[in-house]
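job 3f2a | input accepted
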Amino acid sequence: MRLVYPVIYYEDEGFIEYKYELVDEDIHTILEDYVHMNSEYDIDETEADNLRPLNTWFHVNCRKYIDPELPLEEQISEADEIRSGEYEERNRQNHDLSDFLHLMNKKI
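job 3f2a | predicted structure (108 res):
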């Protein structure tokens, strides 16, 4: 897993957004953990199998909301950019990881 730059502070929305890129190892670990936690069966071993070997990159957008009782400058010190205006959810035509896990939950 690696942090994808830039880290952005959305001042009108009140959060800092971090984006992480997940590599195959991360995705396999997430899927295995998810299956172990949500399967109705007692599973000893899992093996993630990619049946669509495309060059697919998964990104996870993470938000850290600003605490109004703490100094703003300290909270946004990690931000590389500051943006104002309405936050636009980008790339919603693609399924994000939470959508993917939701679909997986229906199949288990």
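job 3f2a | The first strand starts at residue 2 and ends at 10.
job 3f2a | closed
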